[in-house]
TrEMBL record, chain A:
Sorted UniProt keywords: Membrane, Transmembrane, Transmembrane helix
Protein name as catalogued: Anti-sigma-F factor NrsF
Coiled-coil zones: none
Highest taxon, organism lineage: Bacteria
Native species: Mesorhizobium escarrei
Entry keyword Membrane: yes
From TrEMBL, chain B:
Pfam family, one: Sigma70_r2
Presence of keyword Methyltransferase: no
Domain of life from the UniProt record: Bacteria
Protein name: RNA polymerase sigma factor, sigma-70 family
Sorted UniProt keywords: DNA-binding, Sigma factor, Transcription, Transcription regulation
SUPFAM superfamilies: Sigma2 domain of RNA polymerase sigma factors, Sigma3 and sigma4 domains of RNA polymerase sigma factors
Domain (RNA polymerase sigma-70 region) ranges: 29-96
PANTHER family: ECF RNA POLYMERASE SIGMA FACTOR SIGD, RNA POLYMERASE ECF-TYPE SIGMA FACTO
Similarity comment: family membership: Belongs to the sigma-70 factor family. ECF subfamily.
RNA polymerase sigma factor 70 region 4 type domain sequence ranges: 120-170
Length: 212, 183
């Protein structure tokens, strides 16, 4: 088949239209949030003392970290799924969440006696954290990988990893409402590991499923 | 030169998305020529037929045209897809390549070379279900319109459009599969 012949066929198919990728991302984000919310409520639900917890800085700070990650990863995922889109500025924003956590860790180290550091870092439910963040995030990750597939990421593994971080940020936002460990020392350790698991799964998914 | 191409191609693609089929054909022809120039310059050693990569790129542009944002320039989008398909073509043949994207400014349009019968796209076409294959062949190689194709096979125009769309999507998907080209 000559290229001119191919062009005739593509032109004859011009009327077929597909939803813009930007809309697909928003729909995907909505569906992913819904799934995460359902799994969260069915599996664990919020902590019983949430009414008092929301008046404490440490509890609220967790949402700032996880939402900063989710928002920056969402913006970068969108750019990575669009060929030729510039990604450097959005990639730079990915430092926001780790930076906020780092600042909180330093503040925590100053405000808490050294004898307490270990207890706060280990916390009371790290295994629950390591279980439920990936569990809440796996459905959203599947949706984000499907959106990546619908898009055209020229670096599928990287795009998959960032989609994993996005799923991780979203899942951790829900999980934070359940978790009793509010110390930045706990968050910096166990949340990071749990989210990294989703990032690794996302990279693998990007490699295996995101072909175009 | 590139600035003029950009303005013209952006306008054509916008018109195409708004439903102007003539604009879309113009867009594809001009894009094919630019991509051909880009690919030929990048393939210095043998083993990969530039025209195969041009065709894969056009198919990818077609099935992924919903990823272009109208407020962004169209040429970086086109070349990013071409570059991805070129790297893919080398990788499938077990080679690694690094391509500098910033060299695109020096690309010039080139006409298509003589037909080669052993095109990848012909093998992909042969792999389609018979109904899709005959419709795609009719509209492309045999040059019939949608209406003429519908009359020839005694089916509705809608059925022709559906078969054409599915056939093209299947060819694009086949190009994306890892094993393709290693048979």
């Amino acid at each position: 088949m000559r290229t001119d012949d191919l062009i005739k066929a593509l032109d004859a198919d011009a009327r077929s239209t597909a939803m813009p990728l930007g809309s697909a991302w928003w729909i995907g984000a909505g569906a992913a949030t819904l799934i995460a919310a359902v799994v969260f409520w069915l599996a664990i639900g919020p902590r019983t003392d949430i009414a008092t917890a929301i008046h404490t800085m440490r509890f609220l700070a967790k949402f700032v970290f996880t939402m900063a990650l989710a928002v920056s990863a969402f913006a970068l995922s969108r750019a990575l799924s669009t060929p030729g889109a510039s990604t450097s500025r959005r990639a730079a924003w990915m430092i926001a969440a780790p930076l906020l956590v780092a600042v909180a860790v330093v503040l925590e180290l100053f405000s808490v006696p050294a004898a307490d550091w270990g207890r706060r870092l280990v916390g009371s439910n790290m295994l629950i954290c390591l279980t439920f963040i990936p569990l809440i995030g796996i459905g959203p990750l599947a949706i984000f990988l499907a959106v990546l597939r619908y898009g055209a990421p020229t670096r599928p593994v990287l795009a998959g990893a960032v989609a994993g971080l996005l799923a991780g940020g979203l899942a951790a936002t829900f999980y934070a409402a359940h978790c009793f460990d509010d110390s930045p020392l706990f968050v910096a350790t166990w949340y990071t590991i749990a989210i990294a698991i989703l990032g690794a799964l996302g990279a693998l998914g990007g490699r295996l499923f995101v072909r175009w | 030169m590139t600035g003029k191409d950009e303005a013209e191609l952006s306008r054509l693609m916008q018109a195409a998305i708004a439903g102007d089929e003539k604009a879309y054909a113009d867009f594809l022809r001009r894009t094919a020529a630019l991509v051909r120039g880009f690919i030929r310059r990048k393939i210095v050693q043998g083993g990969v037929d530039p025209e195969d990569v041009v065709q894969e790129t056009l198919l990818a542009i077609h099935v992924k045209r919903h990823t272009w944002r109208q407020d962004l320039p169209v040429l970086p989008w086109v070349y990013a897809i071409a570059r991805f398909k070129l790297i893919d073509a080398f990788r499938r043949r077990g080679r690694r390549v690094e391509i500098e994207i910033d060299e695109i400014a020096e690309t010039f349009a080139e006409p298509e070379a003589e037909t080669v019968s052993g095109r990848d796209i012909n093998r992909a076409l042969d792999g389609l279900p018979p109904a899709q294959r005959s419709v795609v062949s009719s509209v492309s190689v045999e040059g019939r319109s949608i209406g003429e194709t519908a009359a020839k096979f005694g089916i509705s125009e809608t059925a022709v459009r559906v078969s054409l769309h599915r056939g093209l999507a299947a060819i694009a998907k086949r190009f994306a599969a890892k094993q393709f080209g290693r048979e």
